[in-house]
Design brief:
- By secondary structure, the chain is α/β, with parallel strands linked by helices.
- The chain has one domain: Aldolase class I (TIM Barrel), CATH 3.20.20.70.
- The protein has 13 helices and 12 strands.
- Helix 6 packs parallel to helix 7, helix 7 packs parallel to helix 8 and helix 8 packs across helix 10.
- The longest helix is centred in the N-terminal third of the chain and has 18 residues.
Length: 370
């Protein structure tokens, strides 16, 4: 794990000569020894578990010392004419039906690529969330507007117009509603399947405060992929997420979904660059695998505004590549890992579509992706 600026400052101070008779002398000496041991344990960075890879991964960049985005995080808008036209068509369709997308609300860096390719992630239940996670750009409200009862039908109409084979639905958290919006999500999935029985539907679901009945209602609605994000490692949950979310609660939701519907693909996502260590990332991946998660995505945390959680480290593309190898060796069916990968990133849809259709035909593909 890389040093934060606060830790770096401590190291500079501790490396200077301190008065020998200071009452803090022993504590300083102990801390110097601990920091030296940490340095020895983390450098050089040689990836990761035994046998995973022989590659040497470039170290992360301290985002406090160098706050500018590295070149691999700089994206361009859709460049060719067809992509621009598709982007505008999709945008106009969403506006006309008063639908929200997480692509816009969360300021996703991949919006140009996904919309230019005719893919969007529709956000249900409005654009205001009852929770205030420190990484998320979606606006927060204690009392959001009532649910739009026409939204499930409007979503089905929009998706039918787009002619898609795979759609991702996500939603805000609605702790103000008794079932957390589970019945609304389920009705949307059912409406989509009634209009297009062959359509594959993924839902990126809330945790419903851990209520199993709400999880059951969504996972039995006819969806194909149930996704719920743990977001970060266990230690950093209180720093990154709203107090009503939690590591154990998220794992329980994922486990419940897999228990109720074993044929449904379960999926989660982890952000990197918020101060986690390699060991913590690995443990989080193992915990997810242990509750039946089949698909995992890893991406770089990007700060939406100065009001949000600061980025601690810029993670290199080589490290993301290494986590992909690590995850595949652990046994995940699919691992999408890259600086700009997000939980609903379209790159994984092609594998998931193949996985689901072959599984339906009784010919599930091998455990690792191409």
């Amino acid at each position: 794990m890389l040093a934060t600026p606060r830790l770096a400052t401590a190291r500079r101070f501790l490396s200077s000569e301190a008065p020998a008779k200071s009452r803090y002398g022993k504590r300083l000496a102990d801390l110097r020894a601990q920091l030296a041991a940490e340095d020895d344990a983390t450098l050089p960075i040689n990836l990761f578990s035994p046998g995973a890879s022989s590659a040497v991964v470039p170290p992360r960049t301290d985002a406090y010392e160098d706050p500018s985005k590295p070149p691999w995080l700089k994206v361009r808008p859709p460049g060719d004419h067809d992509a621009q036209a598709e982007y505008q068509r999709l945008r106009k369709s969403l506006r006309g039906l008063k639908l929200s997308t997480v692509c816009e609300e969360a300021r996703c860096p991949n919006i140009g690529e996904c919309w230019g390719g005719g893919t969007a992630t529709i956000m249900l239940m409005g654009d205001a969330c009852t929770r205030g996670c420190r990484f998320c750009n979606i606006k927060t409200s204690r009392a959001p507007p009532p649910l739009d009862e026409h939204e499930p039908d409007n979503v089905a109409i929009a998706v039918a117009k787009w002619g898609l084979k795979y759609i991702v639905l996500t939603s805000v958290d609605r702790d103000d509603i008794p079932d957390g919006g589970a019945s609304h999500i389920a009705r949307t999935v059912q409406g989509l399947k009634q209009r297009q029985p062959d359509l594959l539907v993924e839902t990126l679901s809330p945790d419903f405060s851990g209520h199993q009945a709400a999880v059951d209602q969504v996972v039995t609605s006819g969806l194909d992929v149930f996704a719920h994000n743990v977001e970060t490692v266990q230690r950093l949950q209180p720093v990154v997420r709203d107090r009503r979310a939690g590591y154990a609660q998220s794992l329980n939701v994922l486990e419940r979904a897999k228990t109720i519907c074993p044929d449904v693909v379960t999926k989660t996502s982890i952000m990197l660059g918020v101060g986690e260590s390699d060991a913590e990332v690995r443990q989080t991946m193992q915990d997810c695998l242990d509750v039946g998660v089949e698909v995992i995505t890893l991406g770089q945390y990007l700060r939406p505004s100065k009001r949000h959680l600061k980025v601690e480290q810029w993670v290199t593309p080589e490290e993301f590549d290494a986590w992909k190898v690590e995850g595949e060796n652990m046994g995940f069916s699919y691992v999408a890992s890259g600086p700009l990968v997000r939980s609903s990133y379209r790159a994984g849809e092609f594998f998931l579509e193949s996985l689901i259709r072959k599984r339906r035909a009784g010919k599930a593909p091998a455990a690792t992706a191409e």
